[in-house]
C-alpha cells in the first residue's frame, strides 16, 4: 500500500489479474538434468507501491530435475523497467545472464583456484592473493582458455 495514496491494491477478478500478468518459460536439458525456468511479471501494483521507480513485480521459478529428484526454488523481485521497454522473455534472459556473469567471474577464483579454502587472513595478504588470482585468470583467458576447471 502506498503511504501517500492511502489506497489498497485494487480488487479485481481473476480475468483482470491474468490480463496484467505476463508469463514466459524455458526448458533446458543437458548434463543429465532438466532445468525449467519460469517468470511471471505483473504491473498491477504500479501506483499502489511506495517504491521509487517501481514498474513491475517479478516471480521467478527455477525447477531442476536431476536423477529423478525435483527441486524448485521461487524468488521474487521488483524492477524499474516497464513493459514498454522489455517483456517477460527478455527479463528472464537478463536474470539468467546475470548468473552467467556471476559464475564466470567468481567460479574460477572460488573453486578452480581454491580461494574459498584459503586461510590467509592477516594484513594485505588476502587482497594480494586475490590480485594474483585475477591476474592469472586474465592471462589464461587472454590466451584463449575460457573453460577454467579445477585441478
UniProtKB/TrEMBL annotation:
Any one GO molecular function term: transposase activity
GO annotation, biological process: DNA transposition
Sequence intervals crossing the membrane: none
Family annotation (InterPro entries): ISAs1_transpos, Transposase_11, Transposase_11-like
Domain Transposase IS4-like residues, every copy: 20-136
A Pfam family hit: DDE_Tnp_1
Name of the protein described by the UniProt record: Transposase IS4-like domain-containing protein
Organism name: Rosistilla ulvae
Amino acid at each position: 500500500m502506498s503511504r501517500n495514496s492511502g489506497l489498497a491494491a485494487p480488487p479485481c477478478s481473476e480475468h483482470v489479474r491474468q490480463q496484467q500478468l505476463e508469463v514466459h518459460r524455458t526448458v533446458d536439458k543437458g548434463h543429465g538434468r532438466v532445468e525449467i525456468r519460469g517468470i511471471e511479471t505483473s504491473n498491477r501494483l504500479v501506483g499502489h507501491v511506495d517504491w521509487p521507480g517501481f514498474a513491475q513485480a517479478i516471480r521467478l521459478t527455477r525447477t531442476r530435475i536431476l536423477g529423478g529428484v525435483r527441486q524448485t526454488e521461487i524468488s521474487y523481485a521488483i524492477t524499474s523497467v516497464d513493459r514498454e521497454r522489455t517483456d517477460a522473455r527478455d527479463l528472464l534472459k537478463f536474470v539468467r545472464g546475470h548468473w552467467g556473469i556471476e559464475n564466470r567471474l567468481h567460479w574460477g577464483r572460488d573453486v578452480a583456484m581454491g580461494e574459498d579454502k584459503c586461510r590467509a587472513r592477516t594484513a594485505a595478504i588476502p587482497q594480494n592473493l586475490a590480485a594474483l588470482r585475477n591476474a592469472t585468470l586474465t592471462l589464461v583467458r587472454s590466451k584463449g582458455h575460457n573453460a577454467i576447471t579445477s585441478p
